[in-house]
Design goal:
With 458 residues, the chain is α/β, with parallel strands linked by helices. It contains 16 helices and 21 strands.
């Protein structure tokens, strides 16, 4: 970041896209440190309502007159932050650019904030939100002075931002986002990479560029730092390094068993073993996430007992294998899964926990480009369900691509019971069917249906 503004001279902060999960964490950091915060977002959400209640000035109309006059009157002492999801024709964005005002990405600001703080970074195309949230919880549980910028709302703390309690001996935890190569602004003390599957090909173009970007990220770990990666990845590093995985790696989970629809495992690590670790968050992929978080936590001094107690008391992250109903009659699980690998991990974990139940799944595809790029893979992973309701593609930052649709995806899915359905018809279908096991997946606005679907079951 090449801002001429020093933190001590800053008066105002303005966000374009303040309601994004990563953007809101940065907004909360500024507010926590005493700076007035304002911003725009496209639609009101539970998160933006909370930000407003916390004291931020937020509007939902793309209109120059909505930008607070105090900020426009003193742009020299104001910081303007935007998300790449803001479209090119955005009125406020172009007005600020026409004035010659520099706009900074969230990642640039994050790099600016954390460059002086020892940082533990969690990267990967899957698993980084749960891993960074669990890592944060492990450190807080062990009474470390933590500040954290997360990509999801932790169930333990009800927020995606954790403020440090004191100004000295801070450990910063950052979810390092590969989207738009954002994580290349970071220079962490230690980092983990959970996965490097091809994704965001609308940005990268090809899987080779995704891998190259992760390699560049690893090269930015500080000289005396530490690097951890999942077994099977092949990122090179001159740092002290380790691997993690199920039944393989330097940090590994063994003796995995299921007790009362929950997973328990033992962890082997270079200095010893931690036995009988209970997981409140289910899923084989979450065991891997726990290994990654534990490996990073041990680099800053946590003991095996602190690791076990922390994992056992971690409640998970909203929209990451989150239970909305769990009774003898019905189970409803919601997950952010929006990539074929994530969908397969989610459905395989559900199958392991409930081997005798029919899985009724609802999926909302996210992005036309992602649906196009992984069409066959989506079809294969969604075929792991027993029955499927498929919503329309959530466009997010994109316009429609001719020939790419939920109907096209549906044709390739190998299930007898499958259908494309509208949101309203879905509510009626679930109310009528009342499935014993319902799994909802997607990264768009499917979460806005959860309350109605839960009500339909109960």
């Amino acid at each position: 970041m090449k801002s001429n503004i020093q933190l001590k001279d800053l008066k105002y902060v303005y966000f374009l896209g303040i309601g994004g999960i990563g953007m809101s964490a940065i907004a909360r950091w500024f507010l926590h440190n005493g700076f007035p915060v304002a911003g725009y977002d496209k639609t009101e959400s539970p998160l933006t309502k909370t930000l407003s209640q916390e004291g931020m000035q937020i509007h939902y109309t793309d209109d120059i007159s909505c930008i607070p006059s105090d900020i426009l009157a003193d742009t020299a002492h104001s910081l303007f932050i935007y998300t790449p999801a803001i479209p090119a024709n955005h009125v406020e964005k172009n007005y600020l650019l026409d004035l010659g005002i520099p706009l900074y990405k969230r990642s640039e600001i994050l790099g600016w904030i954390t460059e002086q703080i020892p940082t533990l970074a969690v990267a990967g195309t899957h698993g980084k939100t749960t891993t960074s949230s669990l890592l944060t919880h492990l450190l807080i549980h062990a009474n470390k002075n933590v500040t954290a910028f997360l990509g999801g709302i932790t169930q333990n703390y009800g927020t995606n931002f954790i403020p440090n309690k004191e100004k000295d001996n801070i450990i910063c935890v950052v979810e390092a986002d590969e989207y738009d190569r954002s994580f290349l602004t970071l220079h962490p003390y230690a980092a983990v990479v959970t996965s490097t599957d091809a994704d965001h090909l609308d940005i990268y173009g090809a899987s080779e560029q995704v891998l190259e970007s992760f390699q560049l990220f690893v090269s930015q770990i500080q000289d005396k730092g530490f690097f951890i990666q999942k077994v099977g990845l092949d990122l090179s590093s001159n740092h002290k390094k380790a691997t993690f995985g199920i039944e393989s790696g330097d940090f590994q989970a063994v003796n995995i068993r299921i007790q009362n629809h929950r997973m328990v495992f033992d962890m082997l690590y270079p200095e010893g073993e931690i036995k009988d670790i209970p997981m409140r968050i289910p899923g084989f992929h979450n065991i891997e996430n726990a290994l990654a978080a534990a490996a990073l936590a041990m680099q800053v001094g946590l003991t095996g007992e602190e690791i076990k107690e922390g994992i056992a008391s971690f409640l998970g992250v909203k929209r990451r294998f989150e239970y909305h109903v769990e009774t003898d009659e019905h189970v409803m699980i919601d997950d952010y899964a929006h990539h074929p690998t994530e969908i397969a991990a989610c459905l395989n974990s559900v199958r392991a926990l409930y081997p005798n139940e029919k899985i009724v799944a609802v999926f909302q595809p996210h992005l036309f480009s992602r649906t196009r790029d992984f069409l066959a893979d989506f079809a294969q992973s969604l075929s792991l369900a027993d029955e499927l309701y498929l919503l329309d593609i959530y466009p997010a930052r994109e316009i429609a691509i001719p020939g790419v649709s939920s109907e096209k995806l549906l044709e390739l899915i190998n299930l007898e019971k499958k259908q494309c359905i509208s949101k309203e018809d879905l509510k009626l279908a679930i109310q009528e069917q009342k499935p014993r096991l319902l799994v909802t997946m997607g990264a768009g606005d499917i979460d806005l249906l959860l309350s109605d679907l839960k009500g339909s079951l109960q």
